[in-house]
UniProtKB/TrEMBL annotation:
This is Nucleoside triphosphate pyrophosphatase. NCBIfam families: maf. It catalyses: a 2'-deoxyribonucleoside 5'-triphosphate + H2O = a 2'-deoxyribonucleoside 5'-phosphate + diphosphate + H(+); a ribonucleoside 5'-triphosphate + H2O = a ribonucleoside 5'-phosphate + diphosphate + H(+). Belongs to the Maf family. It is an enzyme of class 3 (hydrolase). It comes from the Bacteria.
Amino acid sequence: MTDHPTRRLVLASQSPARLGLLRQAGLAPEVIVSGVDEDAVSAPTPAELAKALAVAKASVVAARPDTKGALVVGCDSVLELDGQALGKPADAEEATARWKDMRGRAGVLQTGHCVYDTLSGKHVAATASTVVRFGEPSDAEIAAYVASGEPLHVAGAFTLDGRSAPFIDGIDGDHGNVIGLSLPMLRRLLAELGVGITELWAK
């Protein structure tokens, strides 16, 4: 292992959950929000949409002069249910309807990941998929959850690490992916660019 300064790592996301996952893994990313208009991005499937959004976010931030030399990570999550990609609900009414539709069923949380190496100009991207099995909260529990405001700020109208955790019976796959970022996926993508994740550990 050559002795060289730790590469700058930039997270192109305003998600505190993603930042928390990276910090827990020993990384110390800077945060630069992309400002990408998510509604302007389209793709034929939810998995491809998640990846396209991640690429769009990483590319915009990687093009900024102040990220020269950095590794830029972009992520985006959507919940796939009945073949549809569900992002953040527009309002409380939509969040309530979403939960009444999801309960007792399983969906697939698709999180797109993109790593952009601004030194080489190369980028790699992939989508990680995790099955989420929803419990059966009562109408009153759904109403209380929606009233908390939490589901309005997250893809799929739920979080695995928040108030809706008691309403999720289980998952099949990487729990970090559901929270917003798959660390195993990130390690593989960095390796494709010739970067070992341990090289990025904060000193």
